[in-house]
Specification:
By secondary structure, the chain is mainly alpha-helical. The chain folds into 2 domains: 129 residues, no CATH class; 132 residues, no CATH class. 73% of the residues lie in helices and 3% in strands. A two-stranded antiparallel ribbon has the order 1-2. α3 packs antiparallel against α4, α7 crosses α8 and α8 packs across α10. It starts with a helix and ends with a helix.
Length: 262
């Protein structure tokens, strides 16, 4: 627990500083996390990173993220140009590999690139393009982190009814509710200090962060259970891998975009 807290505090401070700085440094951070996240996803799926499928997966993911990387001059999306060639090459590769690389592997390569690419794309979009992007990003992350902490501590204290035991046996209904309440309290309090948004807007951010953040966590739990791993990686002491820490982010920010909030 001590190692987990130290890693969380140090990492959180550095992360918030880079959110504040924005521009090139925040883009570099998101790019690094995306690269590591796809690495972990491919490893879990049994796909070698330094192989044709791995390279194609990275090409597809970067084609999504590219327009929001602040330090690159090219601002137009290349996704539509890259998706079809990548799909065809992966299917052809499954033929040449004589069922050592299955069509399921091809689908997982594309899924991983989309899942991680779009998640980090909308994180960058929220910070660099959205009005009041810094305050929006801070409030969303505070909501996500409050949800995680609230769910953990409330679940430990009073959790009785299992939320979804087939996917994540340790999560409880009480913990889930506690996480949502924590998100609302923290986001509204922080917004009161920052004065960034109307109360209704801040409440929506809190609710979306609390609900879809937990959905993102369950998605990652389902993936890990399917692949038979405890953590997506080991890069963060006490926390596992990058995907273990960013699973909620990868869902919350795209949902906020779909709702027209970003």
């Amino acid at each position: 627990m001590k190692q987990r807290i130290v890693t969380g505090v140090v990492g959180g401070i550095l992360f918030l500083f880079l959110v504040y700085v924005g521009n090139v440094w925040y883009s570099l951070l998101l790019l690094l996390l995306a690269l590591l996240g796809l690495y972990e996803f491919l490893q879990m799926a049994g796909i070698r990173v330094f192989s044709l499928p791995g390279i194609l997966g990275y090409a597809l993911m970067l084609s999504i993220l590219w327009p929001q990387l602040f330090f690159l001059p090219q601002r137009e999306s290349m996704f539509t140009l890259v998706l079809m060639p990548v799909t065809i090459l992966l299917l052809l590769y499954s033929v040449f590999r004589k069922n050592k690389f299955h069509v399921e592997h091809a689908a997982l390569t594309i899924l991983g690139a989309l899942y991680i690419g779009y998640g980090f794309f909308f994180m960058a979009l929220a910070r660099h393009v959205a009005e009041n992007g810094f305050f929006l990003t801070i409030l969303v992350f505070l909501g996500i982190w409050a949800t995680d902490s609230g769910a953990y501590f409330v679940g430990k204290a009073v959790g009785r009814r299992k939320l979804w035991p087939e996917i994540s046996p340790n999560k409880t209904v009480e913990g889930s509710i506690g996480g949502l309440v924590a998100a609302v309290l923290v986001v509204l309090a922080a917004n009161g200090v920052l004065g960034a948004f109307p109360v209704t807007h801040a409440l929506i951010l809190a609710l979306v962060s609390g609900v879809t953040g937990q959905a993102g966590d369950l998605i990652e739990s389902a993936l890990k259970r399917h692949f038979g791993v405890k953590d997506s990686g080991k890069i963060l002491p006490g926390h596992g891998g990058v995907l273990d820490r960013t699973d909620s982010w990868l869902i919350v920010f795209p949902i906020l975009h779909l709702m027209g909030i970003i």
